[in-house]
Amino acid sequence: MPYKKKLIEVALPLEAINNACAYEKMPGIGPHPRGIHLWWARRPLAAARAVIWASLVDDPSSLPKEFPTEEAQNRERERLFGILEQLVKWENSNNQDVLNAAKAEIMKSTNGKPPPLLDPFAGGGAIPLEAQRLGLEAHASDLNPVAVMINKAMIELPPKFVNQRPVNPKARTDLADDKTWTGTQGLAEDVRYYGEWMKKKAFEMIGHLYPKVKDENGKEHTVIAWIWARTVASPNPIARGAHVPLVSSFMLSTKKGNKAWVEIVDDPSAKDGWRFEVKTGILPKQLEESKMLGTKAGKAKDFICHLTNSPIQRSYIQSEGKAGRLSKRLMAMVVVGTSGRIYISPCQFHQDMAISEDDSPDVRFAQETFLSGNTPTRAMITGGVCSAYGLKTWGHIFTSRQLVALTTFSSLVAEAQEQIVADGGSKDYAQTIGVYLAFAIDRTADFSTSISRWAATNEKAMNLFSKQAIPMTWDYPEVNVMADSVGSFTTITDFIARCIATLPIIGEQGFVIQQDAQTDNGLRNIMVSTDPPYYDNIGYADLSDFFYVWLRQSLKEIYPQLFFTMLVPKAEELVATPYRFKDGRSEARGFFEKGMAQAFRLINAYARDDVPTTVYYGYKQSDNEGERTSSTGWETMLSAIIHAGFTITGTWPMRSEQAYRAISMNTNALASSIVLVCRKRPADAPNSSRRDFINTLKRELRPALQKLQASNIAPVDLAQSAIGPGMGVYSRFSNVLEADGTPMGVRAALQIINQELDLYITEQDDELDRDSRFCVVLYTQYAFNNVKFGEADVLARAMNTSVEKLAARKILQAQKGVVRLLGRGEIPEKIESHEQIIWLLAQQLTHAIEKDGIVGAAKIVANILTSEPEQAKTLAYRLFTIAERKGWAQEAFAYNSLVISWPDVQSKAADLQGHGSRAEQLHLDFGG
Asked: pTM of the entire structure?
């Protein structure tokens, strides 16, 4: 069926989108919708916004009457790129001028009738939120009740109260009557007010559990955190069963001028013969490094018994933990002084106050009613094996005081709603505020566990879920939830309120339901964009039980159907988790494949014909002895999409880092998400033979790769992007048949696509001069290492060059029977005008980027009036591929950096060439 190509199927300003995604992931950008509630592996809003918009806007090539020439199409495409580049910027998220310009293009391309959007794997809600921001009717569904509540809090509840004044008495009394409350500002103000109301009520009930402390001068302070250390009975008989500390670091503050640390002081009068004492002042670097090891023998090594100096093996600590015999000792107290944090040595009163709650009614209630049966062993094993030390349930990871506080706050959500109604708010409004207050309890729980950690670098408590795992910690902060510091209820509700205020200023209602993606929701003729689970990477259901148990206590009366079960549903969760199946990994894979295939069959039924379906997938091709292979999850995802009746028309890498991450080389880190662009395959699509498939692939993949390189796609993203046109060929056929008549699988197709990509990159060597070809071969085999002269000489002669010539050009070093390529820092910086060697130019440009950035490379390019710089950029793609295969991370990073900087290098070089004499311009620009 003929259709208009959308912008996302032809071209995107990928660098601008990825830079916006990277910026959005940076810490310290302030309030963000993601701060309303934590979710794992959330897509950047910039990516979701770009993908939705580019999926709706017509590409100029589909409008030949308006744009009859390629030049006219490129001009129009650049105009659209300009809109999109502004749209993805974080600071423009609620810029109405930018949004109106973007919405106008959507209306133009959809004849004024933009489609509704559905995300059937809604998760953290980034996609439906951005659909709503762009003026679409947003639908979200998910099996997980926590995800459902997050989506409700972002797209379903706020539109009901847009531009509404707050109802709390303080706002009515203190704020001028003529103040205009736009968007969600009034809602945010009430969340802030009633959060503080809850804190005050809680303090009346349990404030005695949070006593103040006096410093050495007798001045009283509010404690913002108590820092505890776990202890274990020494296994050495000489210690006679005395407990000794298990400390991962004694450093409390590593800030310059404010060093603080803990020392163990032998004290026969103290329990077990020792006590902790806080020290501050100057600490030599070597001693600081020693203190950062705590009581461990070294990084990842056994602990050392303080009393006997003998090792304490992890296996012994695990057995003691499982037997319930680990204890804890107060290590330090943190308060806020006039010029920063003050660290105070522990006292017995504060230790006893916390431990006295161990057998309180509230603690027993929490453990017996909703924490005792919750045993997320698998989630706890992931990344930290805390279950191996006896922390087998959620109840085990909270201190008694933390359980009392969280239970108290949970009980106050209903009272807060009653107060809101008494203050003039509707019941619906009161329940909405109750949702955000319940979220505040969840965030408080995230900071209030016994496996949180204290960050000595910035002197604050860190939340538990800094990643999608639950690691074991030995010393931990217990934050004062009644204070005004990181992790306190006041700070948290204020932050959530500020995040609410960043939601779209809209009035369109969103729709959220709890449903698994394999069940038909009845919607038809809609747009679909979704981010499915990543095979077995993240156990969302296991992890989200942590939040579910607290949400259920606060919201089960408001949403009884959503919180009907004791825990998050897991049997239907579409992930390949082996422990849930009798036959382990193979059965888990079958479950995932079958379920994902059904989900995409429904997506095919939902989706309208004139808008592409987009699917995000966390992607990393694994390398197997230099060969690109596809991961099981990636192959399964592609198979499900294709077998459901889709053809893939594009793949775009969406990255959350601005530069190629060396840490991700040869690992399965999810550095990128691939966005798959899909169209419905015609019912009468033909079959193809293997030979015809390969011939078509050869014919179509090459020009597609040339366009990708011309668009300056980063080398690290080229292989991923090549899958789009490659799988586009494969998926347009009903079947690709092997010689024996059996259908070709996705894995085989991917292998062929990768082979063609490798051939394309390798064949670019033919366009190089003979000296550069020799250098590429030598680099491939030896990098910049030594090779025997005889071997290098034979290779050089075969390629019609000589070692002596290249040594004279300062490309090689040849002496004492040994030859090696000179490193970039060793080659001459001056470019010779005669007989240009592309290898030399590529190395000079790469070194200039490393040393002097864009300006340094532009100086070189500005002095060359031929096509050699473009050839050098092309060679950088080739060298990146070699380095990636070999696992040379820094080399790959260097060539990738050159390519992604190329547009700026060209622009700067043009400036240098276009203003007076080159010498004058260099003097003006660089202070010469």
From this structure: 0.88
